[in-house]
Fold this protein.
Amino acid sequence: MLARAVIFLGPPGAGKGTQAKLVAARFGVPHLSTGDMLRENVSRGTELGLLAKPVMERGELVSDALVLRMVEERVARPDCRNGFIFDGFPRTVAQAEALDAILKRHGLGAPAVIYFNVAEDVLMRRLTGRRTCKVCGEIYNVYDRPPKVEGRCDKDGGELVQRADDRPEVIRERLAAYERQTKTLVEHYRSQGVLHEVDGASSMEAVTASVFGALENFGARA
Ligand SMILES: [Zn+2]
């Protein structure tokens, strides 16, 4: 049993989303993201959703205070009683401290934090190699998962394009921004002794094995 919050930290392209799904299935806990929470609150027309909607429509970031209220409401639900996985949150030390307080209020102890460490050149290759089918949205990678015919989708022959977000100069900037923002967050969790680093550059199976191993150890320590 997990019985705690698990936080996945790591740059874009580190494979956190895939691993989060596997951990969620293995331990039978929900996989949470603030993006899903925002969408759910907006579509249900909750008080928080009504506050968030105009901000999102202006293309602005929803305030920390609002995000944290959504997190608290979500964590209080029964399906989170045995723990949950957070992917992409917290992003700052301030959010991490607020989350620590929320966990305490809901009877969950210190989180287990998994940090996906991946060298920049590996991330660049993963991210700049991405091509998306214009027809069905299927994602390929010219290095790691090339289509059978260059530039064409295997399923429907649709044209494969590089999204503006996947251009090298955009990605380099995104990675640098991530690095600046996350350094202090990684230190925050490291100093609490709850950070476990995994080598995100190894194969998907190897990463899964070390994530499961780390979480079982966290469980044994608790
Ligand atoms: Zn396609």
User: Anything to note?
Assistant: The pocket of zinc ion is lined by residues 133, 135-136, 138, 153, 155-156, 158 (CB under 6 Å).
